[in-house]
């Protein structure tokens, strides 16, 4: 490897070759440039490219995936430390000038996947299985990234080859219709599923696998079934994909809160997560939902002092009262998702102070809290609820899946909360709410509301804006418009 990447210092060369002229020294060609053609030669190179692809995904999971998937829903509200402009998301005042994150980072990750798809097939691997698994992960990643983007912005530039030069004819392209984007997503999913040699997970479950791609497949087909008139055929495909997930080494953990502990990464409930580690990554979005150092009042209740423990982060938004109040006190997901901090007044009255997340508290090292929990993209409870949704869409009884979720949530009090099959409309409402209670703060809620067609009914800032369907998409940022001349703004913005 070292022989391939020799680095020569022009200064040192000049000292050693004292007879060379100044012109001769200036004419020495650099040999330290690593091109794609020189890099993609060995299995180790492919592994490096694969790791780089996952690092780019992690960059997006720090905050952006949460903003796209949940920030505009009813889940969050202003907290103690101002808003950091996050209020534009839950107030739905985003605009071209204040669009939030753009797609540049996501396309960088797409490009990393495209490089693997171009070069890995030409490399000799230690086994065909290793080669196929590498290529399968790139197809899975590209499908996932385009799924994120098509739900966020609609029509997209379809880039299926790596950008390796600066030719404007290939670099700058127009947006393709949503239908074409989903065609690519579904094709990539099928290629990935065909290439994965088995149903196993990698250690830590933070790389794409056959079960996690089946979870993605169910998610995609439920979206196209509801949003693109895919109907019964798409719902049937989604249901079958959920069934395939159930054949893997997956199960619900008995203790809901344990799912999100820093010391319990990669449990059997996890299908796909974005890996974070202390000293390996910066704080992720949970940092901005916690309590800054020095903010916890001296007269806070003892239980709050215990639960909050070491303060940290920057509380610029917090779980909203609208959502907190939907959790029953019998539901273990309440304590496993957030904690309401109360202070005690001079007369003994309890006064609400703030809510912090208990899901995503990170780890404390050297007396400092670091928010480096894995960001979960898919887990088994999510798939069970997708399965309930698909069954209900097909006119089948979703009780089995709903009650598996509620049995864990309510424990010994389950009988009082047992789900009973009703009308399709009533079931859909129950499934949508169950997804809120189960998956809150995991970057799912906004997309759930859009898929179910309920964003304008449920999000307070949208209730007076029914009919403005353009608001279901994000605007294209000024940054993207300035860099990509063939891109036009979404209608309405």
TrEMBL record:
Name of this chain's protein? RagB/SusD family nutrient uptake outer membrane protein
Q: Which UniProt keywords apply?
A: Cell outer membrane, Membrane, Signal
Species source reads: Larkinella rosea
Q: Which residues form the signal peptide?
A: 1-23
Q: Which GO terms describe its cellular component?
A: cell outer membrane
The SusD-like N-terminal domain extends over 96-222
Compartment annotation:
Cell outer membrane
Q: Which PROSITE patterns match?
A: PROKAR_LIPOPROTEIN (PS51257)
Record-linked SUPFAM superfamilies: TPR-like
């Amino acid at each position: 490897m070292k022989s391939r990447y020799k680095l020569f210092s022009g200064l040192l060369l000049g000292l050693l070759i004292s007879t060379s002229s100044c012109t001769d020294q200036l004419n020495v060609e650099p040999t330290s440039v690593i091109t794609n053609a020189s890099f993609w030669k060995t299995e180790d190179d492919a592994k490096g490219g694969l790791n780089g692809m996952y690092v780019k995904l992690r960059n997006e999971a720090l905050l952006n995936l949460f903003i796209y998937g949940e920030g505009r829903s009813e889940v969050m509200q202003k907290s103690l430390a101002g808003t950091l402009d996050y209020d534009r998301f839950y107030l739905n005042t985003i605009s071209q000038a204040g669009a939030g994150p753009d797609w540049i980072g996501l396309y960088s990750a797409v490009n990393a996947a495209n490089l693997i798809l171009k070069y890995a097939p030409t490399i000799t691997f230690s086994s065909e299985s290793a080669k196929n698994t590498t290529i399968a992960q790139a197809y899975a990643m590209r499908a996932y990234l385009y799924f994120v983007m098509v739900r966020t912005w609609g029509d997209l530039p379809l880039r299926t080859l790596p950008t390796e030069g600066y030719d404007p004819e290939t670099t700058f392209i127009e947006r393709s219709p949503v239908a074409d984007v989903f065609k690519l997503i579904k094709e990539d999913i099928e290629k990935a599923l065909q290439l994965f040699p088995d149903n196993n997970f990698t250690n830590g479950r933070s790389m794409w696998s056959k079960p996690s791609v089946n979870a993605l497949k169910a998610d995609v087909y439920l979206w196209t079934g509801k949003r693109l008139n895919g109907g019964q055929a798409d719902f049937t495909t989604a249901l079958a994909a959920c069934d395939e997930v159930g054949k893997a080494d997956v199960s619900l953990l008995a203790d809901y809160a344990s799912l999100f502990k820093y010391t319990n990464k990669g449990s059997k409930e996890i299908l796909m997560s974005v890996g974070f580690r202390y000293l390996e990554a910066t704080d992720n979005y949970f940092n901005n939902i916690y309590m800054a150092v020095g903010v916890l009042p001296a007269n806070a209740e003892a239980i709050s002092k215990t639960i909050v423990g070491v303060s940290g982060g920057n509380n610029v938004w917090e779980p909203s009262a609208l959502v907190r109040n939907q959790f029953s006190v019998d539901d273990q997901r309440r304590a496993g998702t957030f904690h309401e901090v109360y202070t005690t007044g001079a007369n003994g009255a309890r006064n609400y102070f703030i809510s912090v997340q208990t899901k995503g508290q990170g780890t404390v090292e050297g007396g400092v809290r670091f928010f480096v929990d894995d960001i979960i993209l898919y887990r088994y409870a999510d798939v069970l609820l997708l399965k309930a949704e698909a069954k209900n869409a097909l006119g089948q009884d979703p009780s089995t899946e709903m009650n598996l979720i509620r049995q864990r949530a309510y424990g010994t009090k389950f009988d009082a909360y047992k789900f009973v099959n009703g009308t399709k409309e009533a079931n859909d409402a129950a499934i949508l709410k169950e997804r809120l209670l189960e998956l809150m703060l995991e970057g799912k809620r906004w997309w759930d509301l859009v898929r179910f067609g309920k964003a304008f009914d449920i999000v307070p800032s949208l209730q007076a804006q029914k009919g403005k369907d353009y608001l279901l998409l994000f605007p294209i940022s000024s940054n993207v418009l300035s860099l990509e001349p063939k891109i036009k703004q979404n209608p309405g913005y």
